[in-house]
């Protein structure tokens, strides 16, 4: 779930890891694209990694060339263009990934979603992955434009809890948010998220 808030933006992700042998820190679902942009993907993880690497490269090239942070929309546009190209080649498989990209552009939080076909749109709140349509319905009912990051995260966790029921486990979630004031991604995982449920 990604939500645009009055004081910033965040992505909350379910890592969906049940393996006791797995080092949880290694299974991150939210990547830092630049110091002001984050992204999360749903679908084929290996495909997502390639697109996220490309997004990071585009962001770095922009910094080196123009000495300024890239606009989030330029990053999602580049990724959407790559996805679209792979829908028209014979013998090439399209990228099986939906991408949620969140960032701060000149003090304004922005959220974009790109689907498998190469389309992308801007949203106030959106969800990708398992149960995305159910989550979107709940977001349409409850999302308010003046929501804060803290209240937004609580809303997102409440929605996950309602949909997952007994399978809900706070330890499997990770949150990355970027506040308007301190434009740097902050990551919170597992039990640390309990503060947001209060």
How would you sum up the major sheet?
5 strands, antiparallel
User: How many H/I helical runs?
Assistant: 5
Mean pLDDT: 94
> Helix amount, in percent?
25-40%
Helix and strand element order: EEEEHHEEEEHHEEH
What is the number of beta strands?
10
Question: Given the helix and strand composition, which structural class is it?
Answer: alpha+beta
Instruction: State the oligomer.
Output: single chain
Poorly predicted runs: none
Rg result:
16 Å
Notes on the structure:
There is one protein chain. With 198 residues, the protein is of the alpha+beta class. Helices cover 34% and strands 28% of the residues. A five-stranded antiparallel sheet has the order 8-1-2-9-10, with helices on one face. It has a five-stranded antiparallel sheet with strand order 3-4-5-6-7. Helix 1 (45-66) packs across helix 2 and helix 3 crosses helix 4 (149-164). The longest helix has 22 residues, at 45-66.
For the structure shown, list the relevant keywords.
alpha+beta; 5 helices; 10 strands
Helix and strand topology:
Layout: E1 2-5, E2 8-14, E3 30-34, E4 37-43, H1 45-66, H2 72-85, E5 97-105, E6 108-114, E7 120-123, E8 125-126, H3 132-142, H4 149-164, E9 173-179, E10 186-189, H5 194-197
Antiparallel strand pairs: 1-2, 1-8, 2-9, 3-4, 4-5, 5-6, 6-7, 9-10
